Amino acid sequence: MSNPEDNFQSKFNETWRLRAQGKRETVLAIAEKYLGKAREAKDQAGEALFLKLYAQVHSDKGELREALSYYKQIERIYIDLKDEVRQMHTLRHIGDMYRELGEQECAEKCLVQVVDFYRNSPTNDLETANANRVFAIVQEDLKKTALAITHWEKAKALYAKVGIPEGVEECNVHLEKLHQP
C-alpha cells in the first residue's frame, strides 16, 4: 500500500511544475482538492504542501498579503510539527513577503531568526545562501551597509560553492554598489 505522504509529495511536485508553466487556475483547483484530502487524512505536512501552492500562486500574481497569510499558516503547521528546518524555510518566505511589501523592520525580525538558525545548524548551502541574500537586501534597505556587505559576501561564497553563477553575479552587483563612496 502506498504512503499518503508520498502521494501528497508526488502530487505537489506535479502541480508545482504546472505552476511554473503559468497554469494558475489549474494549480489552485488541484491545491483545493488535495488540501481537503490532506485535512481529511489529518496530514499536517500534506496540508502545508498544498497551502504552499496557494501562497506561491498569490505571490506570482503580486497578491503579497494573501501569500503572506498562507505562509503564516504554513509556519504554524511546522511549529506544531516541530519541524524547525521547514519552519525556517517558511519564515524566510515570510520575511521576503514583508520585504516586498516594504515592511523592512518586520522582514528583519523574521530573517534574523532564519540567518541565526542557519549559522548554528548544519543545513543546505543553497537555503543558507538564499537566507543571507534576502537578509542582505533588507539590510541595504535599512541603510545598514556593513551588515549588508557581510551577508552579501556570505551569500556569494555559498552561491559559488553550490554552482549558482546568477547568485554570485547578483551578489557582486550589490557588493560593488555598496563599496562605492
Written account of the structure:
By secondary structure, the protein is mainly α. It has a domain of 82 residues: Serine Threonine Protein Phosphatase 5, Tetratricopeptide repeat. The chain has nine helices and no strands. It is elongated.
Write the layout of secondary structure elements.
Elements lengths: L3 H17 L3 H17 L3 H17 L3 H18 L2 H17 L3 H17 L4 H17 L3 H18 L2 H14 L3
Mean pLDDT: 93
Number-wise, the strands total 0
Q: What is the structural class?
A: mainly alpha
Low-confidence stretches: none
Shape: elongated
**What percent of residues are in strands?**
under 5%
Helix and strand element order: HHHHHHHHH
**Fraction of residues in helix:** over 70%
Top keywords for this entry?
181 residues; mainly alpha; Serine Threonine Protein Phosphatase 5, Tetratricopeptide repeat; 9 helices; 84% helix; elongated
Brief account:
With 181 residues, the protein is mainly α. The chain is 84% helix and 0% strand. The radius of gyration is 17 Å and the shape is elongated.
